[in-house]
């Protein structure tokens, strides 16, 4: 790599066409300018100036080095301009989270993109292991998980809780026994089995047989459609509140209060010590506002 300081001295000398003027422009002495030129010539291995008394012209090698120096100066100016102008309304931001949280966040992301046409938001619903892996590897700028990050390359902040909710059709009476739920049938989904173990196991500890022995009424793996059977009077299900409140026919559902609520912590994670660009900080603020409101 050409020495950046010597290269800048050479470009300035060629632009001023005079050693004394170059020294004044660089706040150097004339011998200091001459020393930089000699060192740059030694690094290149070619004479860079053809001298004629006190005047000079660049040699062919000097013309090539001068072109490189001007390009580097332009690149440096562009870099400084970019660093000074970190636009919160332009560029890409990628976020990974659970499906229910994605349903909660996406309307906010749509509003952000409508307000800022140059802003590109990538939202991926993924299992927690993939969220952690993706943020650690830099594929996602931000991630949301249910526990403090243990990965050494990650850091996070607690941004709220998401309550597990027992969902029945609107107007249904709160069950006093697990048998009443079993009579309705479970609307199962991929995360529903773990949710059932947590919520039903905590509230019906003497009768709960485990998720694998629940009576099914239906199964669906599309997060946005899980409440649909319940809204039509078919069975019951268990979802995080983030997945219930975003359902378009929320008024046809009933969240049943239980004696022992179960809540999942929500942690917003990113790469450790990474300074996020302004656009990602804007998205981060929207995520925090949405999750703290749950």
TrEMBL record:
What CDD domains has UniProt attached to this entry?
Answer: PBP2_LTTR_substrate
Alphabetized GO MF terms: DNA-binding transcription factor activity; transcription cis-regulatory region binding
Alphabetical keyword list: DNA-binding, Transcription, Transcription regulation
Boundaries of each HTH lysR-type domain copy?
A: 1-59
Keyword Transmembrane helix on entry = no
| Domain of life assignment | Bacteria
Transcription as UniProt keyword: yes
Q: Which family does it belong to?
A: Belongs to the LysR transcriptional regulatory family.
What protein name is recorded for this chain? Answer: LysR family transcriptional regulator
Query: Lineage of this protein's species?
Result: Bacteria, Pseudomonadati, Pseudomonadota, Alphaproteobacteria, Rhodobacterales
């Amino acid at each position: 790599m050409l020495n950046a300081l010597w290269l800048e001295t050479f470009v300035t000398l060629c632009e001023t066409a005079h050693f004394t003027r170059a020294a004044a422009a660089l706040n150097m002495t004339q011998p200091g300018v001459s020393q930089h030129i000699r060192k740059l010539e030694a690094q290149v291995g070619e004479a860079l100036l053809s001298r004629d008394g006190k005047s000079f012209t660049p040699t062919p090698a000097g013309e090539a080095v001068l072109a490189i120096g001007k390009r580097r100066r332009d690149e440096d100016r562009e870099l400084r301009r970019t660093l000074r102008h970190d636009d919160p309304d332009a560029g890409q931001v990628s976020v990974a989270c659970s499906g229910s949280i994605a349903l909660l966040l996406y309307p906010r992301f749509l509003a952000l993109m409508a307000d800022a046409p140059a802003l590109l938001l990538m939202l991926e619903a993924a299992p927690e292991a993939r969220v952690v892996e993706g943020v650690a590897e830099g594929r996602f700028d931000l991630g949301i998980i249910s526990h403090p990050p243990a990965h050494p390359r990650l850091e996070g902040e607690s941004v709220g809780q998401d309550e597990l909710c027992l969902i029945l059709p609107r107007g249904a009476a709160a069950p006093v026994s697990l048998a009443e739920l079993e009579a309705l049938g479970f609307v199962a989904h991929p995360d529903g089995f773990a949710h059932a173990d947590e919520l039903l196991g905590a509230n019906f500890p003497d009768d709960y047989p485990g998720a694998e022995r629940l009576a099914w009424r239906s199964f669906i793996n599309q997060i946005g459609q899980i409440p649909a059977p319940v809204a039509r009077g078919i069975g019951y299900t268990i979802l995080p509140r983030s997945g219930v409140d975003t359902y378009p026919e929320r008024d046809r559902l009933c969240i049943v209060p239980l004696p022992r609520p179960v809540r999942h912590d929500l942690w917003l994670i990113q790469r450790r010590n990474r300074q996020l660009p302004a656009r990602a900080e804007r998205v981060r603020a929207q995520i925090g506002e949405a999750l703290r409101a749950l």
